[in-house]
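Much of the work behind modern protein science is quiet bookkeeping, done one molecule at a time. The fold becomes a row of whole numbers, each drawn from a learned catalogue of backbone shapes. The protein below has been through that process, and both of its lines are reproduced in full.
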Amino acid sequence: MAQHADRDAFTALFDHFGPRVKAYLMRLGSDDAMAEEVTQDVMVTLWRKAALFDRSKSSAATWLFRIARNRRIDILRRRRAVNVDAQTLVIEDENLPDPNATLDEDRRQGRIREALKKLPEQQLELVQLAFFTELSHSQIAEQTGLPLGTVKSRIRLAFGRLRRILEEDSAVDAPNG
């Protein structure tokens, strides 16, 4: 096939290896569409690069399955949604959050929301302006008409109060030892 671009020989190889390559890819975890895409790509590579095949290094089957495996890995890497360990062919989804970290973060945010509710209205308003609308202390003073020193002291007092509230909550949540 390689020396004469023999279409009949290519058709015979395609008919023989095509279904086997696709089945191999599906056993590796590819869905039907990906397995079909990679199989087509492998067969095109067979047609274009048959002259590069060295019978002394491997069998045609080994060569084609290696191409299929490598193309699959390339596609998965390009998608960046998964990480492929080429040695074990284990696929790990990098986009899934760590459930423990998510739970801890949800608890922490809930505790902060509850602590914010315990602040005096004047302090809460300034904390919201500073950290939720991201205004500088000067901008807050200008917007509220308060002196800059008053804005700074109320925010500082609010943080002191938040720290105490959160520390008290942590002491209550801590196991007695």
User: Anything to note?
Assistant: DSSP finds seven helices and two strands in the chain. The mean pLDDT is 80. The longest helix spans residues 148-173.
